[in-house]
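Page 42, continued from yesterday. The earlier attempt failed because a stray header line got pasted into the input along with the sequence. Redoing it now with the clean sequence only.
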Amino acid sequence: MYISITDSETGSNKAGSMQLVNYLEKENRAASEHAVERELWFNTAGREIIPQEVRVRIDNNISKLGRNDAKFFLINISPSQKETAFLKECFGEKVAEEKLKQYAVRVMDAYAANFKRPAVHDSNDLLWYGKLERFRYYSFKDPDVAKGNVKAGDRKEGEQLHVQIIVSRKDISNKIKLSPLNNSRGLNIEHSQKLGQFDRVAFKGSAELIFDQMFGFDRPITDTMNYALTMKNGSPEQKKEISRQDDRITSQHKQTFDDITEVIYKHNTPELQQLIGEVDFSGTGLLDILSSSDSLSDDNREDQISDFKKKKKKKRRPPGI
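This time it went through. Structure tokens are written below.
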């Protein structure tokens, strides 16, 4: 599962949303030319939302935001080829699209919970709109275009089903600022109280777990976020250890996934990194692997990792000791 959070795929998110909304209507323009049914926008409340509502609601939900402040963000939810094929095999092509929309709602539940704000609990507390897209297209930046293998604007091959989401910087009450690009993980209490917090690693990890539990997807270890992060940022010992694991999730680990998924996406407790670490197959948690890229000082980083390991070890002690 690939999930990204950006300022905007086109135009600037410091101005109005019209350019982005129009861009995300590109498949509908093609559908009109071929007399195909248009794909409307959706969110927690409905499935048949017109683009005018998206633009007007997003552009008017900007109370106390300055000229240079971000007004909205773009979230890209892209299942892998395996995940998309799995959905279509289980539900059929049309129902699979609806299932992906349902999944997007639950991902936005996790997005809301990640801020840990008292008045922001789930997707109902956000102002957001999703747009399902069935295709992706080559751009001038793609290597294949530069090599002359394809032309910019050509459709990419394979399963390309995905969801693009525009989410307002302000919550649905237009009172609370919410920025997913904030690097705070709640470690600096004063900073978090003033600007909020958002853990992008935890958000993306919870989205993976939600998909697996929601659809019963048996994810190979090599396809997990933990494996990818270990291979990218882990030490040689961590990479060697995780590479020795076979490509199966044991029943014990599978149960752990099931037990903690509800906690992660509904409640997103302060123990989130610890919970993710407990289903780690390499012997170290995500917090350990990513610590080298955090904005923390070396001393704070070592203290945080030490505390994490102590809690983890304490939790695993046999009963009665």
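Notes: Confidence is low (pLDDT under 50) at residues 247-321.
Reminder to self: strip header lines before submitting.
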